[in-house]
Amino acid sequence: MSQERSRLFRSAKTRLSLVLGLLMLTFGVLKFVIPTIDGWFHVQIQQSHLPHSAILMGKLTEIMTGLLFLLPRFRPWSAKWEGRILLIACSSLFIEMLVAVYVHLQPGVPPEVLPLGIKLPVIPLFVLLLDVMVAIPAWKDYSRDFVKTRAYSRKPCLE
Predict the structure, then answer these.
(1) pTM (2 d.p.)
(2) Which of 8, 47, 89, 159 is 20 to 30 Å from 53 at the Cα level?
(3) Domain spans of the chain?
């Protein structure tokens, strides 16, 4: 039963990381390609009183995060490296979604420039939940592998 549940969580982690990767990569690229979406993003950042550099940094970070989520799918990695890459992607997305929640809660940001015109941060909080659902099993796998490698690498102290 425990192994079945573990396999189910790994499968869900893989699928969710793929969905999050495609989602972040797509919206990052769209902000460069479609002027309307780019304009909305500019208004969101400016009306949130974030620095102007956050516009370019936000776009590039979305693309980078999407690629980090997708990277283990393009090339087979050892479990240790796949876990590390996934945890970096989850950390990046976590910060991005916290900023998105902040932007949604700013009174100067009009709902017309937010995804689906929703002022409440429903979408960023949902993405944040999916991110945590990927991060927890990835952290468990990483920490289990870390403990194993540390146990094997310890040598007895000769005094």
Answers:
(1) 0.83
(2) 89
(3) 2-146
